[in-house]
Task: inverse folding
């Protein structure tokens, strides 16, 4: 069976840069053609900023890896032109079951709120996502956008100065030099860029091993997330069963710390556990087996002058809670509009420091949430295990204990409370849509609100008057005029008005709220645009 | 800190028939081994904490329960 991850998608080709007399200079170079690097590059190309992506490989990543994609990253992928492919192929799930020993103690419905274009979560193998992103790169190239994907290009030296970065790139034809005004390092948890620059990566190591087995099977298991604490087939440890497309099932088995990793990967050793877990009559074959350990850590700063770190290169979390790849998309979503304004000269470089402010804040929130899940799943002390087991015992009989069960939480986007980019708030408007919050979607009479947002600064007016466009020192603000007749379900009013009759929202290019008022005031909007672009 | 604790959490006698309560607490543990007792105590803490609900009160109780230095 030829698998998607065996086909070179962007094989090495000699580039003109390799024959240049002097190093060729590019506005932006992205290191790493994983999901986060490709998202960054697509976002830049869509903004007409030329970009080159370098990766030492030429294929999608091996194995399913990241499989849970949450609503907010799907909205970002919509803006990048890949959302439909993701959701069409992905498995939508809402129901989770929690087992303790041999008993089902609890089930939960993620109960996604109605009135959103995208579901709370889909499951999809990372290699499909990467394929769709590469397809999107090709489509942008066909449209004449300047976006280049160079496989077989390994960066071996990174030399930053005040105006850019010089890169040494190793290829099958030998090394060459190139210059970048800006470098975005999306080269993963083991980021060679981070190492070459001698930068820190501090945090907490969890002394545990987990086995991932992706198995192909035709099984009657429902499309649910099943999580076991201390099951008979993996005594003293945890286990997870989760469905992916193409009859592929993700099985996670906690192994503990003192193990022989090679021996544990032997299918002969795994098979008895799976048979006990899935039942003796289930036919399956292995697609991918891997053992992972994890850490929760981040760089102190994500911006180092002209070098910007995003995704796992900047921060790493445990997989429980789906906050790895999901937060990486939110990094580039936050970064690229800022970089675009800085490159175009409409915002000062200080705007990029707010990428640090906002995404370090988000990384801390992600690390906190995933550490808490991990501490529940794998208790680190005797007392911790006693309370964990008490919660699970009580959850079977008493509703109060169920919210304490933590087998991984819904991955929600950070709200940038306290960001220096936030402008004024107005009393009476719903808390969920406060400055710093990502836009809540809502059904409109002719489509979805989220599809009408993003790409530039916008003034969303609901039953209020305002000019159709504003120019604030070179930044165009476009009005999106909405009224009660655009709100068939009442969701728009509930999410953006509360009890107030009308509102004006200043939205950032990344669909986050910058400021809001109950009526339009040109001076107030201009001041908020300046604040939101670090010019105040 | 101490004053606040006393503001939010009752640390004055509040149980009628203290001897009766104490006997009931011990009776609940009767016949349990050390591990089972520990599990019962953990469940009890969670049930009582949920009943109190108020995070300030629970935090004050955690503070009051810490080993004396």
Result:
């Amino acid at each position: 069976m030829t698998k998607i991850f065996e086909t070179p998608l962007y094989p090495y080709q000699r580039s003109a840069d390799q024959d240049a007399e002097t190093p060729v200079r590019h506005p932006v170079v992205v290191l790493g053609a994983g999901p986060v690097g490709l998202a960054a590059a697509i976002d830049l190309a869509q903004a007409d900023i030329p970009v080159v992506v370098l990766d030492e490989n030429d294929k999608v990543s091996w194995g399913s890896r990241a499989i849970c994609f949450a609503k907010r990253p799907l909205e970002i992928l919509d803006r990048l032109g890949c959302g439909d492919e993701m959701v069409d192929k992905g498995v939508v799930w809402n129901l989770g079951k929690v087992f303790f020993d041999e008993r089902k103690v609890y089930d939960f419905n993620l109960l996604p709120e109605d009135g959103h274009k995208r579901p709370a979560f889909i499951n999809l193998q990372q290699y499909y996502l990467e394929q769709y992103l590469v397809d999107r790169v090709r489509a942008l190239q066909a449209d004449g956008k300047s976006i280049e994907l160079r496989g077989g290009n390994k960066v071996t030296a990174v030399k930053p100065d005040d105006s850019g970065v010089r890169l040494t790139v190793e290829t099958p034809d030998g090394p060459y030099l190139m210059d970048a005004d800006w470098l975005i390092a999306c080269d993963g948890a083991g980021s060679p860029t981070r190492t070459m620059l001698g930068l820190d990566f501090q945090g907490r190591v969890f002394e545990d091993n987990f086995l991932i087995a992706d198995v192909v099977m035709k099984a009657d298991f429902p499309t649910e997330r099943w999580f076991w604490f201390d099951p008979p087939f993996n005594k003293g440890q945890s286990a997870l069963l989760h469905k992916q497309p193409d009859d592929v099932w993700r099985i996670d088995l906690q192994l503990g710390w003192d193990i022989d990793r090679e021996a544990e990967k032997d299918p002969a050793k795994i098979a008895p556990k799976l048979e006990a877990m899935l039942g003796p009559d289930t036919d399956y074959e292995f697609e991918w087996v891997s053992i992972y350990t994890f850490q929760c850590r981040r760089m102190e700063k994500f911006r180092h002058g002209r070098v910007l770190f995003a995704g796992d290169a900047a921060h790493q979390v445990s997989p429980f809670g789906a906050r790895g790849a999901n937060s990486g998309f939110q990094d580039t979503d936050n970064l690229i509009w800022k970089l675009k304004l800085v490159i175009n000269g409409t915002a000062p470089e200080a705007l990029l420091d707010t990428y640090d402010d906002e995404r370090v804040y988000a990384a801390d929130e992600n690390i906190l949430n995933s550490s808490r899940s991990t501490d529940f799943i794998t208790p680190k002390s005797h007392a911790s295990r006693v309370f964990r087991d008490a919660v699970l015992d009580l959850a079977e009989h008493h509703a109060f204990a169920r919210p304490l069960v933590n087998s991984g939480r819904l991955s929600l986007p950070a709200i940038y409370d306290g960001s220096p980019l936030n402008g004024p708030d107005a009393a009476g408007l719903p808390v969920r849509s406060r400055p710093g919050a990502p836009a809540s979607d809502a059904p409109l009479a002719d489509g979805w609100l989220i599809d009408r947002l993003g790409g530039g600064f916008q003034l969303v007016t609901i039953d209020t008057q305002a000019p159709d466009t504003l120019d604030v020192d070179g930044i165009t603000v476009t009005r999106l005029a909405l009224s009660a007749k655009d709100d068939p379900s009442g969701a728009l009013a509930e999410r953006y008005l509360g009890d107030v009759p009308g509102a004006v929202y200043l939205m950032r290019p990344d669909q986050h709220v910058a400021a809001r008022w109950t009526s339009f005031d040109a001076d107030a909007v201009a001041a908020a645009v300046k604040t939101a672009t670090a010019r105040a | 800190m101490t004053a606040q604790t006393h503001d939010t959490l009752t640390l004055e006698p509040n149980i009628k028939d203290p001897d009766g309560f104490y006997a009931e607490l011990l009776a609940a543990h009767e016949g349990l081994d050390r591990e089972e007792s520990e599990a019962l105590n953990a469940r009890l803490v969670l049930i009582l904490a949920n009943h109190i609900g108020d995070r300030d009160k629970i935090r004050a109780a955690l503070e009051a329960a810490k080993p004396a230095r």
About this structure: The two ends of chain A are 59 Å apart (CA to CA). The domain at 204-296 of chain A is CATH 3.30.9.10 (D-Amino Acid Oxidase; Chain A, domain 2). DSSP finds twelve helices and 26 strands in chain A.
